Amino acid sequence: MRQLLAIAVLFGFHAGARADEPKPEAAAAVMTNALKAFQVPGAALVVVRGDKTLVLKGYGRRSSDAKELVTPDTLFPLASCTKQFTTALLAMLVDDGVLDWDDPVKKHFPEFKLSDPNANALLTLRDLVTHRTGLASHDLLWYHAPWNIEHTLKQVPHLPLDYQFRSGYRYNSITFMAAGRISEKCGKKKWEELVRERLVEPLEMKGVTFTTTDFPKGADRARGHQLSKSGKVEIAPVYAMKEPNPSGSMNATARDLAAWLQFHVSDGVAPSGRRLVSSTPLLETRTPQNPLRLGPLAKASFPETVQVSYAMGWVVSDYRGLKVVGHGGLIDGFRIQITLVPDKDLGFAVLTNMHDSRMPIAATNTLIDLYCDLKPKDWNALFLKLIDDEAEAKKAALAARDRARDPNAKLSLPLADYAGEYKHPAYGTATVTHADGKLTAKFSNFTYPLEHYERDAFRVVEGRFENELAVFTVAEGKAKGLKLSVIEFRK
Question: 483 lies in which domain range?
Fold first, then answer.
């Protein structure tokens, strides 16, 4: 099929849908069942094969408190699926001859440095976009941060490597921000301008925005949701991403993603028939680069898979004998999944307005089974059980921690003596205040209300980090340090 598609592109026509494609009603049933199973208010679906869009439809509501329905033109955040656009742009710059995947980072962006001088000397663009630099995720250096990307990038030299350079995998959005800066250095324009001019406009992706502040007035936008502590659906606070971010700030519609999927299925040809990039550098972005070692719960998410690797903005795995290339996007109130089945010339995009839902991957797997004539499997049930197992594991871990707690282990200092400023060379300052007999820690744009747990440890009682422990270090009768969200701050 791949050879037929290449010949079709050469002679100006395209491979398309099969005569025996499943009816759209079958895809609708998949989505409807998944929406109900995972308590998702609304979703949009795109299915393409070759140059044909088989399904382009919205299901459910844009917001749980309104009647407006999700349509093919409803905007959703792409979150980390933005990374695909960054690596596609880099592939174009490789195609232009102004960049190579194995160029040293210092050649194009000498300002970006790791803390290990040996790793820093060897660091390449390929390392940045395959999550093998040695850096841990360090998401709190950018997520909801009051500072800009430039500030985040400048802090990297102050971060010790979490593992040996090129010896493992840690998902890292910061290195993709650095890769975006390299695209700017080589492309002579801002990242967002390059993506718009070289990808978005030629693909006629008319709904795309690069921040949450440049939506057109009255835009058809989905509203994010989350599950409350009692398990009920509620509207999630909006995460305003005001700065274009090569790792995760783009927004798009299902109609936009139909063109994006066709571009990838055709290995670089737009639906108009115009080739935007040579196939070789684009296919490199979908070639396995860094094997993933999955833990037990992660393995449960891939029960039909033997090997999983990160490519460049894509995850490559085997699935029931097929090569599957995909990536998820997760941001406050939303989760999406974009997936390719190259040997079947298939592409899928599932966009949902529910935080951290497993619905997109469950629906995608079910759709792959449907469109590839595979034996059906109840993916909804499998992922719902996985959710329950994860919740039980978390509950058991908290219970074990509480059983080991010594409630009579008292504070080393008077409560007010823990107040003050604690600093980290990369993360900056965490401030602890004492008022009305309680301590509150603040860092970045986050607030941590604290209550005494045992000794010099405090439990976060509400908010994003509820149930985490904030632990003070006391020496010589003074509070000398604070461990907050795994960050070691010092006085």
Answer: 415-490
